[in-house]
Amino acid sequence: MADILDNWQKKALDKRKENRDYLKRVTKKRGMEKHLPDLHDEAFSKIDCLNCAGCCKNISPRFKTPDITRAAKYLRIKESQLIEKYLRLDEDGDYVVQSSPCPFLGADNYCGIYDARPGDCRKYPYTDSGDFFEYVNTTHLNSTICPAVYYVLERLKQIVP
């Protein structure tokens, strides 16, 4: 079989329906999450986030109150300044970045607030937790944004067809 990651973005787009159907089906199976830690480690042995930064270029994390406090302190600005300069309220009432790519993403794909990054960024791409199956729509979308999510999904399909 060809390397899963070869031309992964095109394959992810081509397999959108197949992957959505698969996720909906296996989400109901017990014990699926037991495969995730090993597949997560396997994926990240092949993928360097700094070569991609697809998440930072395409989606925004939620900035919850503790995230805003931590990031503002890290940047040495007031919370109100952080909100005014970088964030907006989305349709769900969550603070998210005003535009993509993330304003904290550097040209070298390093995060300018990495040590104070939001919880969503710390947990992303959820390939090592039950959230992978709990939020099918998010996982499905992430499979077209993050090579690690696509990789884990494709490997799961090999393990549990």
Task: Write the SSE topology.
Layout: H1 8-14, H2 16-26, H3 36-46, H4 54-58, H5 65-75, H6 79-86, E1 87-89, E2 95-97, H7 119-123, H8 131-134, H9 136-142, H10 147-159
Antiparallel strand pairs: 1-2
Helix pairs in contact: 2-9, 3-10, 5-6
Structure commentary:
The structure is a single chain. With 161 residues, this protein is mainly α. It folds into two domains: 8-56 and 124-159, no CATH class; 62-122, no CATH class. The chain has helices at 8-14, 16-26, 36-46, 54-58, 65-75, 79-86, 119-123, 131-134, 136-142, 147-159; strands at residues 87-89, 95-97. Helix 3 (36-46) packs across helix 10 (147-159). The model has no long low-confidence stretch (mean pLDDT 93).
